[in-house]
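User: Can you predict the 3D structure for this chain?
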Amino acid sequence: MNTPGHKVIISCAITGATHVPTMSEHLPLTPAQIRDQAIDAAHAGAAIIHLHAREPADGRPTPSPEVFAQFVPAIAEATDAVINITTGGSTRMTLEDRLAYPLQAAPELCSLNMGSMNFSIHPVASRISSWRYPWEKDYVEGMEDMIFRNTFKDIKRILQDLGGKGTRFEFECYDLGHLYNLAHFVDQGLIKPPFFIQSVFGILGGMGADPENMITMRTTADRLFGRDNYQFSVLGAGRHQMRLVTMSAILGGNVRVGLEDSVYIAKGVKAESNAQQVAKVRRILADLSFEIATPAEARAMLALKGRDSVTL
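Assistant: Here is the predicted structure, written as structure tokens:
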């Protein structure tokens, strides 16, 4: 059940590296589009803004620090939201690629996938007959034979290199074993509470979007870490987004929305912006009598180093 007095952190993942431009004309691709949608999402109530970068010309995912620099400082200047930079990038990027901007920026928060895995949306390709850009078809179909790599050594390096700069992590857990991977690094002394656990449901290669899986993740995290030592959050992919994040709040957790996770706002209806998804989940939470965490409250809940300690 919900923890008394618990305030819900809303995270918003603005663009990601999984959806391609053909899937939605509203997916932000250019630095200006990412900047504007991120600022609007923060003003709509997102305390955390999760960011990837894309090539301005065609929307291809990129790890380029030069592209990140075209929108991250502007978001930080216009909002008080926590800036969360991906270390996941895409399956096409090396670890060096993925760490290029995070190590330069040393933000308050970075995402960290807690294991190697199959990660794919390749079945979607069969439902698309016309592609907006030439790279997209091979990118989506090619996921069938791609692995997202984060070995124990990779994770250790990220924890040491970024953790040494005071960055904390959104631990993305796509399967039950990822919680045990997290516990391994806790036992190694590389991670200290409070942990921010982002449970991911509905991605092919990870856990299915069954409510029972969420209960399993929540109770397993309780056994491994103790409920007072972590913040639980949920990401529901695609059509599963709103119902699963609502269940997370009811279980005492937090929520993540955004066009990285789903390009829809309702069945068959494309979301016109990230802010629209934030506004919808905020309305649902308010109707259920939940209070929404401000960026300052999110920083306190996650023990972040604070905006003053970051130069973006």
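The chain has one domain: 7-309. Residues 7-309 form a domain with the TIM Barrel fold (CATH 3.20.20.70).
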